[in-house]
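Tutorial handout. Part one gives the primary structure; part two gives the three-dimensional structure as tokens.
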Amino acid sequence: MNAHAPISFALPGSDRIIVVGAGIAGLATALRLAPRAVTLVTAAPLGFGTATGWAQGGIAAAMGSDDAPALHAADTVAAGAGLTEADVALRVAEAGPGLIDWLVGLAAPFDRDAAGGLALGLEAAHSRRRIVRAGGDSTGRMVLETLVRVVARTPSVTILVASARDLMRDARGAVAGVVCERDGVRFSLPGRAVVLATGGVGALYASTTNPRGATGRGLALAVRAGAVLRDMEFVQFHPTAIATGADPMPLATEALRGEGARLIDETGAPVMAGIAGGDLAPRDVVARGIFQAQARGARVFLDCRGDLGARMATRFPTVAGLCAAAGIDPRIQAIPVRPAAHYHMGGVKVDATGASTVPGLFACGEVASTGLHGANRLASNSLLEAMAFAPAIAEAASAVPAPGQARAEAATPRSEGDPDALRTVMERQVGVVRAADGLAEAVRHLAPAARGGCDVALTSLAIAASALSRRESRGAHWRTDHPAQEAPVHTELALSDLWAMAEAVAPGRAVVAA
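Part two.
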């Protein structure tokens, strides 16, 4: 049997909605679709392999008496560096309190204060204490466990452990199913609509806080099917990944700085001195501050010594455990940190219902570009965004016209390329600080593998090409050769644009987009 030839698979009924991915975005969407039949395609068993379970900070929501959705939305817009869409920010912020109530109704074990109310934390660039958390710094894991438990007992949801390899389309060009692969065999899974909830791209970089499977394969599926990608250059680097040699890198949550931790160098001098916002500046500012200090030869540490370090085991048990595993006692030792790829603000361009530019294809969560995050995501808005868009996606996907006869495209050979080499290119040329020469070199290096069927290289190419085309510095995208801001516009690209960019910077040609 040809392992790359799609075959039929005995899951009856093409009227199902197919959700690809089982983090908070996929699980919330599957639950919102009930009682409509859903097949949830996940590359790993439920509860494993997703970045949701690693989220330490929490969920931002205007729950305090001194807070309001309008204030939350304003903070989101301010962090987005001119590219956050204000109406999207307000709509998501307004949904926040109701979504927390929804999770409470599902028995999510959120932390409480002495009076029994929700314990609200503070993170960088938030003007109010509005971070709802569970288990101190274990929010993602506990919310994930809650949703997994509910999905497991929802009869309308069928779990399929397999990898999505291609999207199927009908005669009209609408997406109408997924080609999956399991145990080396590919099979076709038709459906009324497909929702991509495949997460982010952090593992494209040598230094990342994301699971190794976070390589943006959903983005490659979408762009190969004709979808438009937007703002792919905006990769958020978390400033305080714990630098002890692990891959992926463990994360020291930003909430530590909200509770008083400070960034210092090996001499004890404050790293963020003289920079607006200091230790609580937006993530892109802090990441660049640390990067620049390291470029000068300094080592950077997160200083939690004293009272915060003494409380860490109860207030931040995940970080305390990570430090213990690395032989660090935060009561008496500062924690070595450095920036690492953490979150992707770009993605599949979608509208208010999560619909992409291709009929029948939706995207939810980190794989989507909704207009919420702009050029720099506000801390703890990611889990909120996924849940806020899930109801609208469920309604819109349910209303998609019944597809015609779905067909799989001719089997596209897939290559994994050299993952370590690709990660090195992204780290060196498309990292915290960028410039035209390095970006053009990245495009030249990545294009052949992308053309050869390597999805990881294709997603990497999209990030590098978008970064090369944005000739300014904005939010998480910083170019030494274009440090000023220009007009706030989105970058959009389709598959043909990637090949055109690769041709434009081919050996012997000038870098026309620099």
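Part three, for discussion. The chain has three domains: 7-55+138-200+345-398, 238-340, 413-514. The radius of gyration is 22 Å.
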